[in-house]
Amino acid sequence: MSYLLTTLTKKKEIDTIIRDTIDKVLVLRFGRAMDALCLQLDDILAKSSRDVSKFADVALVDIDSEDVQVYVKYFDITLIPSTVFFFNAHHMKMDSGTADHTKWVGAFHRKQDFIDVVEAIYRGAMKGKLIVNCPLPPERIPKYQLLYKDV
């Protein structure tokens, strides 16, 4: 399904889409086109993109592209898929009860979950908030373990 959505492979393309998306939520999925979990998320994003088109744009970022590594490092993309949200070039954060508020890690369980999250981010952004609460119940938020190494 990734062929239905815009795929970004260059830093300049990402810079441009972040800068030029005005009064809409920009959803950037960082991942690989051939990863099973990314394909599941891409299917949900593609099916939802028309439903959220009035208040959101969706694009995919190929993390294997050498030119986008600056974003991969900046957003600490270590688990894929990871989804980052922007509004008017501002990075939007979401408190979903996980340790990381800067991105959504994993796939959404269903199409409506994605729509609810994007709508919550849009409503919060329209009120001037840079962090919003996740509208999903805890059982529908992906769980993952963060591994920390002692240095």
Automatic annotation (TrEMBL):
<dbReference type="Pfam" id="PF02966">
    <property type="entry name" value="DIM1"/>
</dbReference>
<keyword id="KW-0539">Nucleus</keyword>
<dbReference type="GO" id="GO:0005682">
    <property type="term" value="C:U5 snRNP"/>
</dbReference>
<comment type="function">
    <text>Essential role in pre-mRNA splicing. Required in cell cycle progression for S/G(2) transition.</text>
</comment>
<comment type="similarity">
    <text>Belongs to the DIM1 family.</text>
</comment>
<dbReference type="GO" id="GO:0000398">
    <property type="term" value="P:mRNA splicing, via spliceosome"/>
</dbReference>
<dbReference type="GO" id="GO:0046540">
    <property type="term" value="C:U4/U6 x U5 tri-snRNP complex"/>
</dbReference>
<keyword id="KW-0131">Cell cycle</keyword>
<protein>
    <recommendedName>
        <fullName>Thioredoxin-like protein 4B</fullName>
    </recommendedName>
</protein>
<keyword id="KW-0508">mRNA splicing</keyword>
<dbReference type="InterPro" id="IPR004123">
    <property type="entry name" value="Dim1"/>
</dbReference>
<comment type="subunit">
    <text>Homodimer. Interacts with the U5-102 kDa protein subunit of the spliceosome.</text>
</comment>
<dbReference type="InterPro" id="IPR036249">
    <property type="entry name" value="Thioredoxin-like_sf"/>
</dbReference>
<dbReference type="GO" id="GO:0005681">
    <property type="term" value="C:spliceosomal complex"/>
</dbReference>
<keyword id="KW-0507">mRNA processing</keyword>
